[in-house]
Amino acid sequence: xxxxPEKAAGLYIHIPFCMRKxxxxxxxxxxxxxxxxxxxxxxxxxxxxxxGTPLVFxxxxxxxxxxxxMAPEAIGQIIETASRYFNIAADSEKTLxxxxxxxxxxxxxxxxxxxxxxxxxxxxxFDDKNLQFxxxxxxxxxxxxxxxxxRTAGFDNIGLDLIFGLPGQDKTxxxxxxxxxxxxEPEHLSxxxxxxxxxxxxxxxxxTGRVQLAPEGMVLDLFNTAIHFLTVRSxxxxxxxxxxxxxxxxxxxxTSVHNLKYWSFVPYIGFGPSAHSFIEPERFWNHRSVTxxxxxxxxxxSAIAEKEIxxxxxxxxxxxxxxxxxxxxxxxxxxxxxxxxSFSQIFERTIAELEARxxxxxxxxxxxxxxxGLLFLDSIASMxxxxxxx
Length: 390
What we know:
Layout: E1 9-15, H1 36-49, E2 56-64, H2 72-85, E3 87-98, H3 105-113, E4 118-124, H4 128-134, H5 140-152, E5 158-164, H6 171-183, E6 188-193, H7 201-207, H8 216-231, E7 235-239, E8 242-245, H9 257-262, E9 268-271, E10 276-279, E11 282-286, H10 290-298, E12 304-309, H11 312-325, E13 330-331, H12 332-339, H13 343-346, H14 348-356, E14 360-362, E15 366-369, H15 371-374, H16 377-385
Helix pairs in contact: 1-2, 1-10, 2-3, 6-8, 11-16
């Protein structure tokens, strides 16, 4: 039986529609917007079918895809349906992902009216050549305008996404993106390293030699550039890709409350095609197809494609990977309390090796990756998780 913890849970809604698929993107989406009405009806029905959970939610995150291709009235219906069937706190964080070029002052004002109180804007770059390479539909001017409109619409919690490590990108170009982002005074910045996901158009271009990814040394330099540039501008680097501005009023960082749940074993429930859910120790996920998803719901069946119950060893692997994602690192006391074993003792050799290579740092209460180590998160985590834990 799943454990219902005391911490508030997160609710995620996946909108599977985009105007056009970006060449680097591996998230599930389609460009056939004609399926929107049936999808919306199925989504509302799925939420109704799963009502009655004892969980209390303090975040609602509507992602995609590009949720802003949907009319504000549709987003309003989603929020209203979620509020009807789930116990969502009155002061909950309600985030909507939007892309420049798909928003206007009018629809941003409508999203705000329907209860959205945080925006995550997929800027990616302010350089038009970078945007063209990435396959984005907007321009740098569109990106700046979308933030200005969001402020006018009344949003005081805005996050911007940027991508670095593009082929040919140098420090000057990256600093240009960071400077323009900071000039817009966002509460949150996500800086993602360009990755080549299997099956994407970018993956095909790299395999055929049409595109050469940035060398590792340059990517590390750009990553360190972002950390330094943003830290001196009062941003807290709290997760491998995420920076939260320190609010002047109370000194508290404007973190993404929802995303923090993914890295700390807090439960979350996802609705929509390909959406994932986790309620310890169970993980489950929906069909990665709008057609299959809608067909299942219309037949009165669950949209869940697969489930798994995590073993203790799998939970340990999760704790290591998720802990290393945060700049705070793995809580050694918390790890021992949860698994009845000492992280420092079990992984003594691996810790010593990585400390010598400058990849991790140990303190009395935490084990965390260094700046250099954060870039090699996956390979470092695998060094721990492949070890015998008995």
